[in-house]
Amino acid sequence: MSTGRAAPTGKTRICPHCKSTILESASVCPACQHHLRFDPKAIVERRMQPTFSALRVEGAFRHPPHGEAWEYSVVVSVRNDRGEEVARKVVGVGALNANEGRTVTLSVDVFKPPEK
Length: 116
Ligand SMILES: [Zn+2]
What we know:
With 116 residues, the chain is mainly beta.
């Protein structure tokens, strides 16, 4: 039985396809959804699978049928138990012309190590 070097929990890497910061244990990039290669010796035994979806929030907004274009920015912030912001990201910005809309979906997946 190999004891291989386990990926430390929470360790990240850069997706070679889209350059997003992702979990080292991810087998599919959550940003661009490309399948990723990884060093099997280093990670295979600790490769985590999506275990459950912690939350999924969806909302839509729409410009009225008339009027000047609007601008918007989509910001996601993550805080720890002490209320300290550990991440804050502008996910997208853009403009809405008359009668245009956007739908924003935020999802959080939680990964647990395989059962022993
Ligand atoms: Zn990617």
